[in-house]
Amino acid sequence: MGKKLVKLPATEVDMTAAKYTPQRVQAPHLTGFWLKLFVMLIETPIIGSMILILLKKKNRITEMLKNTVIPEAPMFIPEFPPKESEPDVFSLEEDGKPEERVELALQCLPDYNPGCIWITDPTAPFRYWKIRDYAYAYKSKLTTPSQVAENFISAIEESNKKNPLAPLLISYDPDEVRRQADASTQRFKKGSELSILDGIFIAVKDDIDCYPYPSKGGTTWFHKLREVKKDAVCVSRLRCCAVHNRTTTNPHAPDRYTGGSSSGSAAIVASGLCSAALGTDGGGSVRIPSSLCGVVGLKTTYGRTNMKGLLYHSGTVAIVGPITATIEDAILVYAAILGSSPAERVSLKPPLPCLPNLSSCGSWCSTGSLRLGKYTEWFNDVFSTEISDKCEDILNQLSEKHGCNTIEIVLPELHEMFIAHVVSIGSEALSQLNPDLEDGRRLMHFYVEIFKKVDIIVTPTTAMTAPIISPAALTVGETNMRVSGSLMRFVLAGNLLGFPAISVPVGYDKQGLPIGMQLIGRPWCEASILRLAAAIEETCAGPKKKPVQFYDILKGNPIQYSPAGRLSYCIKKMGNKRVMLPASEVDLTAVKYIPENIQAPHLTGFWFKFFLNLAEVPGIGSLIMNHLKNDNKFDEKLKYTVIPECPMFKPEFPPQEPEPAVVSIEEDAKPEDRVELALKCLPEYDPASNWNGDTTASFRYWKIRDYAYAYRSKFTTPSMVAERFISAIEEFNNKNPTAPLLISFDPDEVRKQAAASTQRFEQGNPLSILDGIFMAIKDDIDCYSHPSKGATAWMHEVREVKKDAVSVSRLRSCGAILVGKANMHELGLGTTGNNANYGTTRNPHDPDRYTGGSSSGPAAIVASGLCSAALGTDGGGSIRIPSSLCGVVGLKSTYGRTDMTGSLCDDGTVAIIGPIATTVEDTILVYAAILGSSPADRISLRPSLPCVPNFSSQESLQSVESLRLGKYTEWFNDVFSTDISDKCGNVLSRLLEKHGCKTVEIVIPELHEMRLAHVVSIGSEALCALNPDCYDGRRLMYFHMEIFKRVDIIVTPTTGMTAPIIPPGALKVGETNLQVTGNLMRFIITANLLGLPAVTVPVGYDKQGLPIGIQLIGRPWCEASILRLAAAIEETCAEPKKKPLQYYDILKGN
């Protein structure tokens, strides 16, 4: 209707046709200084308006607010259909006394058996004390509420002394706690306790009135405007102790958030200081922190609890709900606080509240009758597959142990609900949203239809586990809509439509962070979700882990378990200086691996341009750079660190032992002779199965020997293949948006080379096995007559290419067809492959994702089947990263093994030229052609003779079996998704099983210093500019040579994440995202800093079908060993290859 989007009436929507589209909020992540600067700009009249307009446009807010016509009338408060009865429940009278309701709830619980809970058994699994444990201890006179109060007060005072400040309670009076505890103690002495909750310590969120404490809402000013004269209704029903809020840290990992906004409520329960707490939930604010802290959080049906006495009691989405350590405690507290307000009894007509009867023998039978709804695409849209896997495992156990059926459902219009809630108004103020957008009536229709098929909708609670707290966020704050979106992905329906929902802990990720599962029920059906949650807790979830910060206030020994911080195993102080111990004195057994995150904003498009303009303003630019350095402790590493070893300006390698089962190659021999020798080392070639047209065979790339066989057998010619190649490149170049593989390409030149090769084959005298093989050259390596631009728009104007680079001339002498200059990340200064000058090369396995960089074009053109091999450069992972992300093989040889003359980085101290190919054997052939040190490197480095593994010898297999593999487990597992570490771990297991390769646990010191210096100071390719006092290469070389006395090869994943998504705003201008850079380069830096050889070989795929690579790092000059192991992995351990989405068969022509 003109520019308006008119939605179909909800009754006419085909719900089965709804498509799930993962949505990511487009907004900058800002902390500290950046947030203050952003807020200042927002408050500037014109600039602020422009920024907000841009944000709304980027996230389609204007489109959804102003340009959408919804046929249904607005639904200002939830309008629920009549409730269906729930089986095997107890009904409660809302008008009954709270203590009577609690008593009835107590009768619903299974029998209590104190058993041996008071016997100290260090081998018993950890469990939280339940409310009934406290009641038993009080009644049995094992302790008193007053004794527990002293333990509590002592623990709170200890917690409040921490630096940085991370209080659990922000309004707290120890005398008031003692007064209440003494009164409870007297009641127990007289045998007249009020209920099972008597003497139970419960915290109250700072937006709920709890007299005489002020309600500040976590602000510094709210209490000045609003006086608290009495308890909120829910608090009066409990009448217990204290209040909370501020940047509370997660008890499971103090450097991570608890989630919000009921952060203190969840943390104080998870830390053992309170059995329960009250929170408010207007956008997941009970469920999110409960999930992240590993406790239970219940959001009841809208109107089930009385909101009077809250800061926003007039809202239409928020509720008061309990946070507890267990389901049974949630039931007891819920029973105490439930009861609608008089107004809501009239407007909502709530049925009688019910509780599940868990004491009956038919309780689990009722669980088995529950039908569970799962929207798989939504369910799996998580930050780490550990979350979806853990929740999926729970569904399988529920089916196996209780007979619960899971039904596939579809939920329409999640995108509108998600974007509207997260971007426009945040998590707690949805009542301010334009009612024409808050299309509650149509959403209610969709969900009512779904609830005709299922009883409970099941999702993860959050799409990520607890995020890290940025240090800069502690003093000023933070805005990170991407994290907000991940945390709130599954919680909105419970608030928008007022449904009951509960989060129950189900396990932990590999970092030990809790994972929660959410159950969303029909209106007023709290009993059903509580019953299922109890079944999950009792029979499906794994054992609980004791939080790092845990206090046992019941037994009287408040204990603070601090995580192992950065030990001073290698550092002492000298004034303001950090003085490193000599490398030979460092105790490697005391080294602790600490994951590090780069502190820098992620900016694309407009924000990136704006940042660049600011950085170029003289005063502001230096201020920004100083702030970045300070945030990342850059000055501490550069200026204030004393390294006792002399700087090592280029690698200095100790002598190496000879490798077994290899063939040595003369560097001075002709390239074609070296290739011929390498060819003799390969297993025998059998063409039989490659040309029989078997369409059922699994996908495989054509190898160089396949092309040579086809040419010699006259199945095709290099000229015929050239025409197919040219046609494919032209087709590729016409795509929109532009995503060129080659940025310098001359089809006539390709035809000329192909014709010459065809003639040589017709005459029976090809130059080598590489004759007629199509290869691309990265745009920072000279390949005459193409210019070398480094993917810039200007480099070719200041630097003329007069001849081939040495490595290129060696390929040309072997007859290789050099197709042109492959795209790359501009100047090699990046890890994604983004290039705003010529267009960003897309990943052949998923065109919406990066190839990795900086050798983006070489990796993509090989993975897409258009070239058998390509040359790239690697100064910071620029061969290995894109090879891993594109599912091909990439070799970084020892520094100095190849001659860098004729490349843009020929005077560096970390970069090499290396091959990218589809298979290990093709990598060996190309490597044999290009190897050979420069005259200068032969003098300074004294390289040993290059070798290739001899696969044709009898001792080849024994050589694999004798290899000792080094694995630094904590580093190995520090990945964005456990798909990566799991796949690489499986390869190690198969190597042991099939080849007898043993894995040895190792420790590598000072990874943090090395990683931070490399990523933050100069990016991925220019480490030669680094201050040598920080580039502590000599000590790092010492550490690695000590490791190589115990192992032959160090094994890691190649990257810490699979191919990242390309933000749309990054295509035209570019982006800066050092968090992604850090993930991609996590395992890369050692080989460049120390010049060690390394190879990446594909081993499988993640759940999204994206390639995963494993990296093998060898001793200096020992390329043969890593290539031998890579071949064994490729042949016997890796998963079958999948055909990329963008693939061209230029050999067969189909």
TrEMBL record:
Signal peptide: none annotated. Belongs to the amidase family. This is Amidase domain-containing protein. One of its GO terms (biological process) is N-acylethanolamine metabolic process. The keyword 4Fe-4S does not apply. PANTHER family: AMIDASE DOMAIN-CONTAINING PROTEIN, TRANSAMIDASE. It holds the Pfam family Amidase. The keyword Transmembrane helix applies. One of its GO terms (molecular function) is N-(long-chain-acyl)ethanolamine deacylase activity. It comes from the Eukaryota. One of its GO terms (cellular component) is membrane. Residues 247-419, 441-530, 734-1012, 1042-1123 form the Amidase domain. Keywords: Membrane, Transmembrane, Transmembrane helix. The chain crosses the membrane at residues 33-55.
